[in-house]
Amino acid sequence: MGDTYKIAIVGSGPGGLSAAAHAAKSGVSHVLLERTDHLSDTIYKYQKGKYVMATPDVLPLRADVTFSAGKRETILDNWNKQIEGVKANVRYKSDVTAVTKDGAVFKLKLADGAVIQAENVVLAIGLQGNLNKLRCEGADLPHVQYQLDDPDAYEAETIVVIGAGDAGIENAIALSKQNTVILINRSSEFARIKQGNLTLITNAIEKGDIQVYHSAETAKIEENAIILNTADGQARVVCDRIIARLGAAAPRKFVESCGIKFPNEDRTSLPEVSSTYESNVPGLYIIGALGGYPLIKQAMNQGYEVVEYIVGNPIAPADQPLLERKFAGLKPANVEDVLAEIREVIPVWHSLNPLQLREAMLDSDTHVLKTGATIFKRNDYTSSFFTVLRGTVGIQIDANDPSKVVTLGPGAFFGEMGLISGRRRSATVVAASDCVVFETPRRTMLKLVQSVDSVRRTLDQVAIMRQVQTHLAPGVPAADLMELVETAEIQKFKAGDVIFAQGDKGDHMHLIRSGSCTVSMRVGGKDVVLSYVPSGNYIGEMALLADMPRSATVKAAHNTETVCIKGDAFKSLLDRSPTLKANVEAKFRQRIKANEQMQKQPEAGNIIEFLIAQGVGEGTDVLLIDESLCVHCDNCEKACAETHGGISRLDREAGPTFATLHVPTSCRHCEHPHCMSDCPPNAIHRTPGGEVYIDDSCIGCGNCEQNCPYKVIQLAYPPDEKFNIFSWLLFGKGPAPGEAMTYKGNNGYDHGEKTKRAVKCDMCKGIPGGASCVRACPTGAALRVSPEEFMSVATLSG
Amino acid sequence: MHESILVYRNHRYLKWALVLAAVSVGIYLIDRPLGAPNGGTWLGYTLGCIAGGLMIWLAWFGIRKRRYGVGKVSLEDWLSAHIYLGTALALIATLHSGFQVGLNIHSILYVLMMVTIISGMVGLYFYVRYPLLLTENRKGLSTEVMLGQIAELDRDVRQIAMTMDDATNAAALKSTQDTIVGGTVFQQLRGFDEHCPTTMARHFVESSTSGDHGPQRRQLLTRLIRKEDLLKRIRRDVQLRCLLRVWLYVHVPFSVATLAALVTHVVTVFYYW
Ligand SMILES: Cc1cc2nc3c(=O)[nH]c(=O)nc-3n(C[C@H](O)[C@H](O)[C@H](O)COP(=O)(O)OP(=O)(O)OC[C@H]3O[C@@H](n4cnc5c(N)ncnc54)[C@H](O)[C@@H]3O)c2cc1C
Ligand code: HEM
Ligand code: SF4
Ligand code: SF4
Ligand code: SF4
Predict the structure, then answer these.
(1) Domain A144-244: which topology?
(2) What superfamily in CATH does domain A321-472 come from?
(3) Can you list the alpha helix ranges (DSSP code H) found in A311-441?
(4) Interface test with B, best of A199, A200, A203, A207 (most B CBs within 10 A)
(5) With an 8 Å Cβ cutoff, is B78 touching chain A?
(6) pLDDT tens-digit profile of A495-533?
(7) What CATH class is the domain A613-718+754-797?
(8) Alpha carbon of B5 to ligand 4 centroid (Å)
(9) pLDDT-based confidence at A742, cuts 50/70/90?
(10) pLDDT digits (tens, 9 = 90+) for A56-101
């Protein structure tokens, strides 16, 4: 067996190749192991001609290979040349299948049977994982492919798409524009796909655009055909091309098999690493996307740094100047001192490792505030999280009386309610004295809550108390709530989960802290929805108060978290607090009345159910069309296109209709936007008004398009030029108002420096007067509604 | 659930129009001009200015409709005002003329304007009435989906007919190949096709006496009946959508013509003064 390298690097993405280049330049013995026969497979697989961004701009690049924004081809060429130039030791077609530690030496097993030995291992395998392949005869024939870069590249072919997951369905639909497409589904129906895709595929099948084989398995692949095992026996389908989208095995299993621990089972949780990128296995390092750093520049910097750390050189990370700038307003401003102070003063940050703390602070904003400055206002839709380093802040707990203030001192945090519920801020917060606070964005907080258990715990303890105080027992002193809060627990529900069922024994109640629920009752053998209950409300108190079984069923409308409160604790609280008791009873009577009213109008309940299924329940602002008024003029789409660079962000005709209510394909502005969850440059934001929008830093990776369950995001080239209505009217110049610009699509047009970017409804942010679509509807059919108002009894029965 | 243009803002523009009309009629009745009432009196000028202004403003709607994202007022506001004030225009212009309509350039303007106004009223009727009919007719399916279902039925029909006698097969094939939906504006507006090959195929299959292929015949028949039903709905859909659009091909050209005649009218009046 060969010699032992100082460093074995697994994966030649930007992280891995930067590490290899630096090792080569520094004369450290190393090997770079890459599964494919080329460098950087993730970038290799980008769409041809894609313009790759070098975000974040402010982060300096520290690497021995160059990288700046440019075309995919240029970047890859460059890397190939430079890796050759520095004489890095690259071993292609080396799929690492196992890493084991034998004393001080790692053994890396490759798929071809070879074993590589190294003192240190750097895992830089990214997050793309391993594409699953077909396991039948002919799976490697040349007309079988496992991914699809550009559906428009195929024309007039008969294409079999295997796999009816989201990827397969999206491919099938895109291909069906120019080809005959046959979709193979292993199960008998379309399970577990996004609502938007379900609508699209059902339509395409009904229209005859796509043919489907359900309950079919691939038996064999031949030169120009595929043999299927179906419920009715074998079928032979002649085709030109086979595209199998069987998903990818996430790299987590492999990483765990190397001995690396993840903090919890959550799909998004990241392996823990030290500030030198070392995992819990000494000598095994993790960098790049796999470690939670989703951008090319970050990965490259880490590649450089990890080599320095391995050879025992504790350099300051490349982001040091950024942190210096962040802390510039503080005295003293020395980065290490400030970080130490943060760790000591603020308990939530206490348990973060140095790398996580740096990362959190890099994402956060430092606010140095004078007494009286407003930090956020009641009813804002912001969802960032604040921690106090020095000084005090005042929370105005009473909307009508700003002098009623709860003061928080150094080490405290606030803003967690907006973070958790995604709803409006429940109080205004001002600086009570000169103070220093950090504002950490929602995304960073979610990542931390997900990956550091102690952050979750610290947050929840305080949050439960405050949620109970705000939504259930306002004005009751904390001391009286101790018993109730201590026995309370947080419960999570997925869309459709039953929180409690009619007839159950009622020994607890729930305070909805995020998401929302529907209340339904069985009437004449049928479930009738009685109401929609958004977060910030409690449910289940009726059975407790009346000492009766549950009178209705409560289901989660979408992902929902509740604070589950024990019945006894609640009752003893009511005994001690007569005003609270009176309030709760008043609400109880009100609900009984509303329920009676709703039972008389099952139609209204059906509408609620329909809207919830369309994701309206989790939105803050949803476009609906009243089909009894819509004259199908499409002026709404034209208005949107015209005010948004020629690309309409709404599709009026698409989307389902119930009675005369139509939900077109357009953004719902979700409380917890799914689209935001993994955007590498963090380009998706939510304004204080609740609108979700994408800013210019979008790199066009398509993650948001994938993540939005309602299919409202498209990738499109930015517009060239804006046309003027008079030049169209008088000279016929440019497209007619609302018409798509001619270059839409990529038919040989050279887009130069342009890259496709994600576009979606931005609620006409920045256009005075608001939503152009609604304002352009001549008949008033288009309306924008907030679910809370819209799904109230009053509106639906009106 | 939502307000239609007729009742928009609690009939705000209806009220404006009524006030405008009442004031015009009132003054017209009080006014005692020298000689017969006509456009040349001070009142005639005033009414003429109002009518001319209204016409220009009404025609401006075509531009306003395409200026997206501009202005704070919604298009529904504009349209609601457009229909009521447009209707009031009919009265004001008539008063302006002093009921003197003859064969001259001035009366051409009057006729063009009235055609525009009446076409507007017809359009308004369509706008108010058809959306609901359209929705009910669709029963939750989009046009595209209905067309897709027809394509699916056609596939079945072809397959079933293949095993049957030549005459049936020919009729069925004709149904799958020659059935048209849409077509020219006139075909669209008619909403049915008395020579529809699908209907003929169904008649043929129904009345055919040969006893062979019993089960196939029944299968074929149910498919054809389903297709006929879909065709009926889809033709109705096309018809309604066409109606919602087609009146604009009268309204808009006549608006432009009205404007042109207005200019001529004003120029001639001052020229021959
Ligand atoms: C469509 C798209 C567009 C994007 N656009 C941009 C952009 O414009 N700008 C930007 O900064 N970022 C962009 N990103 C993100 C960027 O691509 C990643 O952050 C970056 O590639 C991560 O680098 P990495 O080195 O961690 O891993 P990767 O680049 O994913 O590289 C992993 C490498 O490891 C290899 N490998 C995996 N498993 C094994 C194994 N077991 N044995 C051997 N080799 C293995 C793979 O073949 C691959 O070559 C985009 C991402 C996507 C999907
Ligand atoms: C001289 C009088 C009128 C003129 C010059 C006029 C002009 C116009 C113009 C230019 C448009 C824009 C059409 C388009 O571009 O799509 C329009 C639309 C319309 N008009 Fe009129 N109009 C007049 C009177 C009326 C009247 C009296 C009514 C109804 C009672 C009416 C009802 C409508 C309706 C319903 C629309 C369609 C709106 C839309 O789809 O956006 N109009 N008119
Ligand atoms: S784009 Fe984002 S905010 Fe809009 S509907 Fe999709 S997930 Fe929700
Ligand atoms: S609100 Fe604006 S961006 Fe959103 S769909 Fe309407 S016109 Fe388009
Ligand atoms: S603008 Fe209004 S009437 Fe026209 S298509 Fe859109 S919703 Fe329907």
Answers:
(1) FAD/NAD(P)-binding domain (3.50.50)
(2) Jelly Rolls (2.60.120.10)
(3) 320-326, 335-345, 347-350, 354-363, 416-421
(4) A207
(5) yes
(6) 889 999 999 988 899 999 999 999 998 877 788 888 899
(7) alpha beta
(8) 22
(9) very low
(10) 777 889 999 999 988 889 999 999 999 999 999 999 999 999 999 9
